[in-house]
Amino acid sequence: MKAATGELNLTVITIIAIGAVIAFFWFLFPQIKDSITNQWNETATCVEYNDDGSCKRYRE
């Protein structure tokens, strides 16, 4: 009986941890998506780059 209780506790802790990771990702996903979109759009409209990789001239 003791072993079954320990396994149940471990299962509950695992489910809570997975839920916390999902909640954290759910909260940050809009910011991550906006960042990726902005970087993609900048790359798509950039015509010439500086030596450091930043955009020097954008497409008009």
Describe this structure in words.
The protein is of the alpha+beta class. It is 73% helix and 13% strand. The chain contains one helix and two strands. It has a two-stranded antiparallel sheet. Strand 1 (46-49) and strand 2 form a beta hairpin. The longest helix has 44 residues, at 2-45. It is rod-shaped and about 65 Å long. The relative contact order is 0.08. The mean pLDDT is 84.
* Uncertain segments: none
Supply the number of helical segments. Answer: 1
Structural class: alpha+beta
Share of helix among residues? over 70%
Strand percentage lies at 5-15%
Overall average residue pLDDT: 84
Gross morphology = rod-shaped
Strand count: 2
Order of helices and strands: HEE
**Main β-sheet, spatial strand arrangement:** 1-2
Largest sheet descriptor: 2 strands, antiparallel
- CA distance, first residue to last residue: 72 Å
Q: What is the topological layout?
A:
Layout: H1 2-45, E1 46-49, E2 55-58
Antiparallel strand pairs: 1-2
Summarize the structure.
The protein is α+β, with helices and mostly antiparallel strands. 73% of the residues lie in helices and 13% in strands. The protein is built from 1 helix and 2 strands.
Features:
60 residues; alpha+beta; 2 strands; 1 helix; two-stranded antiparallel sheet; single chain; 73% helix
